[in-house]
Design brief:
Largest sheet: 7 strands, mixed
CATH class of the largest domain: Alpha Beta
CATH architecture of the largest domain: 3-Layer(aba) Sandwich
Strand order of the largest sheet: 16-17-18-19-20-22-21
Number of strands: 22
Number of domains: 4
CATH topology of the largest domain: Aminopeptidase
Shape: elongated
Distance between the termini: 31 Å
């Protein structure tokens, strides 16, 4: 089973959770609209997509799913949810299940004004919310609410454009500031049709904040509510929390599930003010608070895989251990910044050309230096000298889109005695990986080597480069000896 996590961003932990569940029985694929994505480093395969609201976004995903035999899609980003929900049938037609709630549920959760209306309509407590600045000021004047008040985007996530106003002067300024933030960020996508109604004013809740993971199965049947008391926040996400036994909030989660009928996880923010729970927000996806549930023994990824297989998920997967205190840590990983981002819908959209000038070869070596790990420059000190060697003894080909290099291969096919060609470099920009470019370059190498009467193709690969090893194994390469303390030779018969 292959699963695609879209808009993966920094949710590396979810990539790890799903990989642990699938083991050797499937792959975790991830996507994002930028190659500068930390979670790419942890997935089996990754791809850079068009922007979510680009007309090619859904066609791109459909094409990717067909090529990579994807069984299910799970989105991790609010902006992505309505687009995928609207197109569930298109994916279903090609055998891909989109694990996302119905569009009506997404509209309620993504739109904080609709969230407020839904909560009030169904008898839940919620902070008073105003879409009109005039109405908010009037309510403050008559004492219905009082300062400070919260100003924030109607469609938003994290802490973008969220402010606290202590008085009328601040409220007027921060209202305009929030509107400016919306217009100059990705929040404009959902707000553009109602830009004059894209900022809300809410009364500020005073009390202890809790996070709920309200879990339903893929048919919207309630499973459990995991309650966590929040101790600290960072950029709108829970940073430190502890699982607690709170029957009141457990019951609240069950009631929300029954009324909303969401699918999978529902991330809910709740304040308890004078023993009364007030619901602040709901997110119909894995939220930033889910890792605290997972640390306490809950395993929703495993349950989802059971459901996708048509199996019943054991209730033990939803049972949390009480009193588990967890804190998110900060880690730094190395990611590769591509020279330029591309995406192509059709593998035939690029063409492969022979590179036969020293200047072009040097340019490619510099351009792709950091695509390789370790870098090319850490192994080859003089690019000019190495370019001369390649030009005189090897063959260099580049895959191009509109004249831009997006991948290249350099190989020798001149050993008449052993009849073995040797690939010295094969690189593809991270932003276009998993689109058939590396495969096309490799197959070109096979064809040219056969024309030059070679019987084998050989290469050197680092022992811990699992992605490269799996790629070469896919095309018939086998280990044939140790090259160094940290690298191996692989060979393929032509």
């Amino acid at each position: 089973m292959n699963i695609l996590l879209t808009s993966v961003g920094r949710r590396s932990y979810l990539v790890k959770y799903f990989k642990q569940v699938l083991g050797n029985d499937g792959e975790v694929h991830v996507s994002n609209s930028s190659a500068l994505t930390p979670a790419f480093s942890y997935a089996d395969k990754s791809t850079v997509t068009p922007l979510i609201y680009d007309k090619n976004y859904i066609p791109y995903l459909l094409n990717y799913c067909k090529k990579n035999r994807i069984h299910a899609i799970i989105s991790l980003f609010d902006i992505d949810l309505p687009v995928l929900s609207e197109n569930k049938q298109l994916f279903n037609d090609i055998g891909v299940q989109v694990v996302v709630s119905d569009k009506s549920v997404i509209d309620i959760c993504n739109d904080k004004l609709e969230t407020y209306k839904f909560l009030v309509r169904n008898g839940f407590n919620a902070p008073k919310t105003y879409i009109s600045l005039k109405d908010a000021l009037n309510s403050i004047k008559i004492g219905e609410i009082k300062y400070p008040v919260i100003v924030k985007p109607r469609w938003g996530m994290g802490s973008i454009g969220v402010y606290e106003a202590e008085n009328e002067e601040e409220l007027l300024v921060l209202y305009k500031k929030a509107l400016s933030n919306i217009k100059n960020s990705y929040l404009i996508y959902e707000s553009k049709n109602k830009i004059d109604e894209s900022v809300i004013i809410q009364e500020k809740l005073a009390g202890q904040e809790y996070g709920l993971d309200v879990i339903n199965d893929l048919n919207a049947n309630y499973q459990n509510t995991i309650v966590k008391v929040k101790y600290s926040m960072r950029s709108g996400e829970t940073d430190c929390a502890e699982t607690v036994d709170n029957p009141l909030l457990k019951k609240l989660g069950a009631s929300i599930s029954n009324k909303l009928r969401h699918i999978g996880n529902l991330d809910v923010d709740v304040f308890i003010c004078k023993h009364t729970p007030y619901i602040l927000e709901m997110n119909a996806r894995f939220g930033g608070g889910y890792p605290f549930s997972h640390m306490a023994g809950v395993n929703l990824p495993r349950a989802i895989v059971h459901w996708l297989k048509g199996e019943k998920a054991p209730m033990s997967l939803f049972k949390e251990e009480i009193g588990i205190l967890s804190h998110k840590d900060i880690d730094v990983i190395s990611i590769i910044k591509p020279a330029e981002q591309f995406y192509c819908m059709d593998p035939k959209a690029f063409n492969i050309v022979r590179i036969d000038s020293k200047e072009e070869i040097v340019g490619i070596l510099n351009e792709y230096d950091l695509v390789f790990r370790p870098s090319v420059s850490s192994r080859i000190k003089d690019f000019n000298e190495y370019a001369d060697k390649l030009l005189n003894n090897a063959l260099v080909y580049a895959a191009q889109i509109n004249g831009k290099n997006i991948g290249f291969i350099a190989f020798y096919a001149n050993d008449k005695e052993s009849k073995t060609a040797f690939i010295t470099l094969l690189g593809v920009l991270p932003s276009v990986q998993n689109q058939g470019i590396g495969t096309a370059l490799l197959k070109l190498c096979f064809d040219v080597s056969q024309e030059k009467e070679m019987s084998y193709v050989k290469l050197e690969v680092r022992k811990h480069n699992d992605r490269a090893i799996n790629f070469y194994k896919k095309y018939g390469f086998q280990f044939c000896g140790e090259a160094s303390a940290d690298s191996m030779y692989m060979v393929r018969k032509l």
